[in-house]
UniProtKB/TrEMBL annotation:
Transmembrane segments: none annotated. Keywords: DNA-binding, Transcription, Transcription regulation. GO terms for molecular function: DNA-binding transcription factor activity; transcription cis-regulatory region binding. PROSITE patterns: HTH_LACI_2 (PS50932). Gene3D superfamilies: 3.40.50.2300, lambda repressor-like DNA-binding domains. This is LacI family transcriptional regulator. Residues 9-63 form the HTH lacI-type domain. It comes from Bifidobacterium longum. The keyword Lipid biosynthesis does not apply.
Length: 342
C-alpha cells in the first residue's frame, strides 16, 4: 500500500484529475496551439496538484528528439571545469536544450571517461561535448558517425573532432612579452608534463619559445605535482639572477607566492610572478595577479553552438577554434632588483 501511494503520478492520473483525455494532456504539455484556455488551465492545475513532471525520455522516444546534450567533465572540483560547465549549461538553456553531465569526483580516469560516453549515448542525448583530454581518438571512433562530438577547453590535435579552446600560444606569448618588457633577463618557467595537461604544457612551451627568441635565459622547472612547489622554489632561489617566475596556472602561482613568503621573499619587490586562468576567487583585484584570463564563457557557448550546428545536418568540416583571452596586468610584475637600484 505504501509503495502504491508513493508512486510517480502519470499522464493518466493528470487526465483523470482534469477530466480530459490523455491526448489532451499531451497537447497541453507540449505547448501545442488550438486548445481552449479553460482546458489548459485545468490540465496545468491538475499537474501541479499531483506533482506531475513529463518524462523527457518518453517525449524523446515519441518525437525522436530528446533536446538533451551530454557532457563528459574530467574533474568538476577544479574551477576550470566548473566554470566551463556553467557556461555550457547557460548556452544550452538559451538554445532550448538540457544538459546531462558525468564527471569524476576527483580525476575521471580514461576507463571511466569511456564508460561515461557509453552511458550518455544510452540516455539518447543528441550531441556530446567532451571536456577531458584523457580520452583518445580511438575512444570516439565507434560513435563518431552516430552522434555529433565537440571537444571543449582542449584542442584535438588529431583533427578527428571539432574543438573550441583557449589560444594557449597567445596567452603564453603575451605573458612572456610582458616579463621581457619589464626588463627581466633570467626567468624560471614552471612546466607541467604534457600527459597531465595538454593545455598547461602548451602555454608553458609558448612562454619558453618566445623568451628564448627574445634572448632571455630560461630555467625550466619540470613540475610533476603541487607537492613539489616548495622544492622547486628552493632550487630557483639558488639562482639569484632569476627575477621572474612564470606559472602554468593561478593556483600554482598562489602556491609559489606562498612558498616565497615563507622564505621572506616579497612579490613583486624581490621577484615577479605570473599566473594563468583569471577566473574565480583568484581573479579578485584585491589579489592583483598578473595573469591571462581564459574566455570560458565564450568557449562554452561556442562549443554548444558547434554541436547544435552539426545536429542541424549538412556537411561540416572538422574545426579547431582557438579563442583569445584577456591579458590582466595585475600587480605581481615589477622591474627586476638590479634595474630599480636595489
Amino acid at each position: 500500500m505504501e509503495a502504491a501511494e508513493s508512486r510517480q503520478p502519470t499522464i493518466f492520473d493528470v487526465a483523470a484529475e482534469a477530466g480530459v483525455s490523455k491526448s489532451m494532456v499531451s497537447r497541453v504539455m507540449r505547448g501545442e496551439g488550438g486548445v481552449r484556455q479553460e482546458k489548459v488551465d485545468r490540465v496545468l492545475a491538475a499537474a501541479e496538484k499531483l506533482g506531475y513532471v513529463p518524462s523527457a525520455m518518453a517525449s524523446g522516444l515519441a518525437s525522436k528528439r530528446t533536446k538533451t546534450l551530454g557532457v563528459v567533465v574530467r574533474n568538476a572540483k577544479l574551477p576550470f571545469y566548473g566554470f566551463l560547465q556553467g557556461a555550457m549549461q547557460k548556452r544550452a538553456r538559451e538554445r532550448g536544450y538540457q544538459m546531462v553531465s558525468i564527471s569524476g569526483v576527483e580525476e575521471l580516469s580514461a576507463d571511466d571517461a569511456r564508460q561515461a560516453l557509453r552511458d550518455l549515448i544510452a540516455l539518447r542525448v543528441e550531441g556530446l561535448i567532451v571536456c577531458s583530454a584523457m580520452l583518445a581518438v580511438e575512444d570516439f571512433m565507434p560513435f563518431i558517425d552516430r552522434i555529433p562530438f565537440v571537444m571543449a577547453g582542449h584542442e584535438d590535435t588529431t583533427r578527428t573532432v571539432s574543438s573550441v579552446f583557449c589560444d594557449e600560444e597567445d596567452g603564453g606569448r603575451r605573458l612572456a612579452q610582458y616579463v621581457h618588457d619589464f626588463g627581466h633577463r633570467e626567468v624560471a618557467v614552471f612546466l607541467v608534463p604534457r600527459k597531465y595537461s595538454v593545455s598547461q604544457y602548451g602555454r608553458g612551451m609558448a612562454m619558453i619559445e618566445l623568451l628564448g627568441q627574445l634572448g632571455i635565459r630560461v630555467k625550466v622547472m619540470d613540475m610533476k605535482g603541487a607537492e613539489e612547489v616548495g622544492t622547486l622554489v628552493d632550487e630557483v632561489l639558488c639562482h639569484p639572477r632569476i627575477t621572474a617566475y612564470m606559472c602554468p596556472s593561478d593556483v600554482v602561482m598562489l602556491n609559489v607566492m606562498d612558498e616565497l613568503r615563507r622564505r621572506d621573499v616579497s612579490v613583486p619587490q624581490d621577484v615577479s610572478v605570473t599566473g594563468y586562468d583569471g577566473f574565480g576567487p583568484l581573479a579578485s583585484p584585491y589579489l592583483g595577479f598578473t595573469t591571462y584570463r581564459q574566455p570560458l564563457e565564450e568557449i562554452g557557448s561556442r562549443a554548444v553552438d558547434l554541436v547544435l550546428e552539426r545536429l542541424d545536418g549538412g556537411d561540416h568540416a572538422v574545426e579547431a577554434l582557438p579563442v583569445k583571452g584577456e591579458f590582466i596586468h595585475g600587480r605581481t610584475v615589477a622591474l627586476p632588483r638590479w634595474k630599480d637600484g636595489r
